[in-house]
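Q: Give me the 3D complex with zinc ion.
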Amino acid sequence: MAEFMELEAQDGVRMTWNVVPGTKEEAGNCVVPVSAIYTPIKPFPNMLVLPYAPLRCRNCSSVLNPFCVMDFAAKIWICPFCFHRSHFPAHYASVSEENLPAELFPQYTTIEYKSPREAACLQSVFMFVIDTSIIEEEMAFLKSALSQVIGLFPDNSLVGLITFGTLVHLHEIGFSTAPKTYVFKGSKDVSKGQLLEQMGCFLNKPKPLTGVRDGLSSESIARFLLPASECEFAINSVLEELQKDPWPIPADQRASRSTGTALSVAASLLGACFPGSGARIMAFLGGPSTEGPGAIVSKNLSEPIRSHKDLDKDSAPHYHKAIKFYETLAKQLVHQGHVLDLFACAVDQVGVAELKVVVERTGGFVVLAESFGHSVFKDTLRRVFQSGDKGLGLSSNGIFEVNCSKDLKVQGVLGPCASLEKRSPLCSDTIIGQGNTSAWKMCGLDQATSLCLVFDIVRKDIPDATVQSSSSQFYFQFLTFYQHSSGEMRLRVTTLSRRWVAGPGSIQDLISGFDQDAAAAAMARLVSFKMEIEAEFDPIRWLDKALIHICSRFGDYQKDTPSSFSLSPRFSIFPQFMFHLRRSQFVQVFNNSPDETAYFRMILNRENVANSVVMIQPSLVSYSFQSVPEPALLDVTAIAADRILLLDSYFTVVIFHGSTIAQWRKAGYHDLPEHQAFAQLLQAPRDDADAIINERFPVPRLVICDQHGSQARFLLAKLNPSASCNSDGHRPGGDIIFTDDVSFEVFLDHLQRLAVQ
Ligand SMILES: [Zn+2]
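A: Here is the predicted complex, encoded as structure tokens.
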């Protein structure tokens, strides 16, 4: 695995198969698709940024790279993708074996280019959309969190403000003498034309002058979007005045909340002011949308908010209509190049499941918390605006493109992006995620954003041995054109080569190139995607079939002898990953609300391999007087009265005190000078949890609990039920899990029996 991590450290990419199955049939037998999880703008300490434009192949427009074949005498380079021969232009005339341009150095498989022209001073724009149909206490939390980040806005940014409840208020914060707002009815969608008309922009200036955007002069824009340096007072005074939606709510009704219209007004305003340049709508939602387009539930409290069961039975009356509305909004934002970030803070569901399409297509953030007062929300919001080394490296206006060898095709991308519908011979007929294109829009992306590309091997038969020996490499090139957080336009180029194999004797090669962590991450995205789009899809059956197939193909065994079964180290933890994936929040959706499921999947779909693995199979560390902190098996037998456990399941970090530890803590032993060692034992997992929380985005929830306490369920739900109430062998001081899940031992036993058949 170390070698796969080295490749990731060089190029930001992990592939499921690093030795690629060479034919369609071979790839089918490998079960896990050939895919790459790629972090397009992962920061590298020694990233070379070339101050000139890249040289491109005239035929396929791939970029000159270390895998090109050179003919120095003729000053020609040969493209590894289409074999086109290109002459070097005049300014490359001095190129020779001894005098290579940097982009041909073998170590620069990943490199960046920046535009030679002076970087235009591109502003970032933030449009805050704030829900006011929330209780006073939540309003106070939200105001305090917002006023804390106002001072952190980037210097060159512009800020605007929309508030909504029953009505939608667009605040004219640039109006110097008195606060002024434009009010829109929440129950009806507002088109861009209606918006502009109501704002009176056209009435004053019937003939827009040249240089104005979409009829809006810069003076008009300045009425609604203020430079960050000047907005602090204006925004603070609006926030101070901000009150809970004044409309009375009958006891049997939900608050009136026109989320869809508010987002639509925000999108249209940004579309009129800044089409094509980076802008983010940041929506702060404190409850379900109940009014106008995009409503997810009626105001009548007797109608419950849709559950997974309702969606399954297709009995959620507002769902499809809301999805349709948000799909249109997503298209509009992608077209404009703008992002929607969602901060959903409520005990109830707010409609994350319906809004997912907008957030995911535009590459926005999503945060789910119970309250605006919760650290998950407050700390995450602050992290968004943090600059420097701890910043997220927020970038915008990305376009992602792929080139690959002609025996490969692209089925699609699972991740935060939108198809640009660029049909090319590279597109596969089978589509996964955003497919049928070789270019994708990434309105918002940051240093962690990771896409999963799924490839198809299209070659039918094995070429004869002579051809195979001369060119048994597949090539991939990933091009990301984006606006760097500094404002510069950059192009990142990553070019990869992987050996392919086919025919008898290729199994050992395939095994040696299998990255089981990357495979688990890809399978998690794939199973989530299939659950969302395929009716009647049975995820457990699909995962089990895949695993059995893999084990019988790549395992070592004598036919019909389960006890002889073994797996190479390259595959050895893959069954465990699949066991935990089956039990995870991505597959067992009925334990969560549709909003939670949408949230978990959106985060999975944007994270790298290491973080995805933690989501699938949490990590567990044990602290005790007997030893230094050590990793523990994710099993109920890890629980002991005199131990502290630290569970990291990505979304939640749990510190679990065994019953004796909890007793000592309650008795205050850690405060006594003679029990210094106990104080240290208590503190160690806290420090480690803080380290995890400090570097993660969104900030995870911290749960501190005791054995037998009600919060202990956060740990128990993630443990292998090796000692469940229907098995004996209950140990004193340990714990049992009440479940009818199968344990990993039983699962593995079945697997071995089926694999050797
Ligand atoms: Zn080419």
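A quick observation: Confidence is low (pLDDT under 50) at residues 205-212.
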